[in-house]
Amino acid sequence: MATVANNSSITLTPEGAVSVSYNALVSSPLSLTSSIERAFGSHPDSLGIIIVRDLPSNYAPARERLLRLAYRFANLDPKIRERYADPKSRYSFGWSHGKEIMNGKPDTMKGSYYANPVIDEPNVSAELRDAYPEYYGKNIWPSDTAEVHDFEQAFKDLGRFVFRVGCQLAVACQPFASSYLTDSSLSLADLISSSQTVKARLLHYFPPSPENPLPAENEAIDSWCGFHLDHSLLTGLCSAMYLRRESSGEPTVVQSPSSNSGLYIRTRGGALTKVSIPADCLAFQTGEALELATSGKLRATPHCVRVGAAPDAENISRETFALFMQPNVDQQLSATENFGQFSKRIFDEHYKDESTGAAM
C-alpha cells in the first residue's frame, strides 16, 4: 500500500498520504517527527492526514461489527430512531438526521449517532453541564431495541480503540506541535487524554433516493458531505464500509460504487486529492481547534465526501466512524476564545433554533 518518499524515513500511500506503523507509534513515537511534519506541516503537498497501519488484530472485527450496526440502526423505523434523538444537546448525543446545516440546507444525505465512548456521564458541575449540553450531556444508548441490543458495547469498543491510538499519536506529534503552539507548555496528549469532551460520530450515508437523487456524472465533489473543517484537535477516522441492500435483509459488503466515491481533501497547497484509508488502518487529521491553538500555523484539514455516479449506487450506503479528540471547554485556544466559546460559534453556524426556525 505504500511507497518510500525521497526522505527514506517517510512512507507514503499511492495518493501521497503519510503512513506510519502502529508498532513504531508505541515503541518509538519520537522517531516519527519527520513523518508527522510531512503529514501535518505547511508543505504544499501535505494533506493534513496520517495513516496508521499494522494495527492490533482486534481492530478489524471491531470496525466491521459497529459499521454493520450503523446500517441496522439507520434502517429502523424512523419513529424508533427518533426516540434516541436529543434536541437539548443540539443533537450532539444520540441520533441526528436532517438537523445539521450543510451547504446552506438541512443535511438529509446522512444520519449520525453521537456518543462519548470514553465517559458515559462527564464529571462536571451542574453549571458547566447546563452551559455545554453538546459536550457534557449523558450518553443515550438504544439498548432496549432488539435489533441493535449490542450497539453500546460495539460503539465503546471501537471508540476506545481509536482513542488509545489517538493518544499515542498525540505523543508522537508533541515535538513538532510544541514549536507552533501559542502556549508551548501545553501537551497535546494531556489535553486529549484528560478531556471529558471526546465525541464519536457513527455515520450512515443514505443511498440516493427520490429526495436525494442519483448524481450526474458532473456531480459536485462534496455531494455526500459538504466541504468542512472538524473543530477538534485531532480526528480519528475509520475506513468507510460500503453495504449493498439485499432482499434477504442482511446487506453485503461491496466495493465503493464508483472510483470517484469517497473522501476528498485539499492539500496545504490547495490541490484536491482523493484519499483512501485501507480497511485495516486508521487515519487521523487535524482540526480547527489545533489551528486556533497555533495561531493558524498548523491548519485544519478541509475535506468532503463524494457519492460517485454509478448504476448500482441507489442500493449502496456508506458507513463510517469518526472520533473527535479535543480539550475541555475551559481550555484557552486564542486570546479571545476558549474551546467552549469556539464550539458554540461553530454549532451556531450548523444548527437551527427549532423554537424559532432560525439559524442559531
> In angstroms, what separates the terminal alpha carbons?
44 Å
What ranges have pLDDT less than 50 throughout 5 or more consecutive residues? 354-360
What structural class do you assign from the helix and strand content? alpha+beta
**Number of contiguous helices:** 10
Gyration radius over CA: 20 Å
Strand content of the residues, in percent? 15-25%
> How many β-strand stretches?
20
Largest sheet: 12 strands, mixed
Average pLDDT reading: 88
What would the principal axes of the Cα set say about the shape?
A: globular
Query: What proportion of the residues is helical, as a percent range?
Result: 25-40%
Fold and architecture overview:
By secondary structure, the protein is α+β, with helices and mostly antiparallel strands. It has helices at 22-27, 33-40, 59-74, 78-82, 126-131, 133-136, 151-178, 188-193, 288-293, 339-350, and strands spanning 3-4, 11-12, 18-21, 49-53, 94-97, 101-102, 105-106, 110-115, 199-205, 225-228, 234-238, 241-244, 252-254, 262-266, 272-275, 282-286, 303-306, 316-325, 352-353, 358-359. The strands form 4 sheets. Strands 1, 2, 3, 4, 5, 8, 9, 11, 12, 13, 16 and 18 form a 12-stranded mixed sheet that branches. A 4-stranded antiparallel sheet has the order 10-17-14-15, with no helix packed on it. Strands 6-7 form a two-stranded antiparallel ribbon. β1 (3-4) and β2 form a beta hairpin. α2 (33-40) packs across α7 (151-178). The radius of gyration is 20 Å and the shape is globular. The relative contact order is 0.18.
